[in-house]
Amino acid sequence: MSGRIAFLLRRLGHAVVMVVGIAVLTFFVLHLIPGDLAEYMAAQGGGGDAAYVADLRARFGLDQPLWLQFFTFLSSLIRLDLGYSFRDNLPVIDVIMTRLPATLLLMSISIAFAFIVGALLGAISAMRVHRLTDAIISFLAVLGYATPLFWLGLLMIYLFTVKLGWLPSSGMRTIGRPAAGWDAAADVARHVVMPALTLALFYMAVFVRLMRASMLEIATLDFVRTARAKGMSELRVYFGHIIGNAMLPMVTMLGVQISTILGGSVVVETVFGWPGLGRLTYDALVARDVNLLLGILFLSSVLVIVTNLLVDLLYSMLDPRIEVAGS
Questions:
Q1: E strands of 134-224, at which residues?
Q2: How would you write 231-287 as a 3-class SS string?
Q3: Which residues of 31-53 are buried (b: 16+ CB within 10 A; e: fewer)?
Q4: What does the DSSP assignment read for 69-113?
Q5: Which domains does the chain have, with CATH numbers?
Q6: Looking at the DSSP assignment, which residues form a beta bridge with residue 85?
Q7: How many Å is the Cα radius of gyration of the chain?
Q8: Tell me: the pLDDT tens digits for 4-44?
Q9: What is the pTM assigned to this prediction?
């Protein structure tokens, strides 16, 4: 068995354990939320007597012991059945799949912009260390990291929508526009600019600081000093030796940031009315739709685990020593 296959199998084993752990944790944590779900559903429907509430409990299995509800939940997961959404009167998987594309679009644009621009600015900052360019980039990175996402989003709405009128303030599409074609794509692009930029600026600051620190550390290593001693130009030293090695911790951080960007999307999607999983999570929490919350948290966790698995494989391709160390 090759090292890469063994590495992949180990990571898959870890992923299975994490998925089971996430299922256990999310189920019991969400059931610690105070209040009676059956009474809440009855109130949402205009109220009802005790018999109606008891019927709701029996219909959705809420009258069963918690351990039995948990094993029912696990058996449903094995069949890829996430249950029924009380809020939307639809299967949970259908509700999630209608919102997932919007979140994937927002996440992919945000993380790609943050990674590429963050790496570029971090490299420029390291190459101009202790100069004015370095000071400006470092200051803007700290400012972007320290600015709350909701405040930045509201500021963008005020500037680009209220004052300048350039971009729409909320939603993903303009009502009445075509649902397909280039006009529809351009309309979605105009709507995604502000939420994607808001989400990206925070994570870009992390990549800027990490790229700068990695390049400055690698620049002090022996093989870099040897390259300079041989008369190699600074540009060749940076592009041939420093930047490539500095990208390794950036790839590691990419996996970590993808894990946290879903949390940030809840705030951003709520501020901009973006119809993704973040906004759906907030709505499900307000409505106490436990099945929908469980489904969102579980599928989001699986998405993060799969993404981190792909990042691990990419890292092992960039640095084959990872396979040797793990074998």
A1: none
A2: CCCHHHHHHHHHHHHHHHHHHHHHHHHHHHHHHHHHHHHHHHCCCCHHHHHHHHHHC
A3: eeeeeebbbbbbeeeeebeeeeb
A4: HHHHHHHHHHTT---EETTTTEEHHHHHHHHHHHHHHHHHHHHHH
A5: 3-91 (no CATH), 94-319 (1.10.3720.10)
A6: 90
A7: 24
A8: 667 677 777 777 787 778 777 777 776 676 666 666 666 66
A9: 0.77
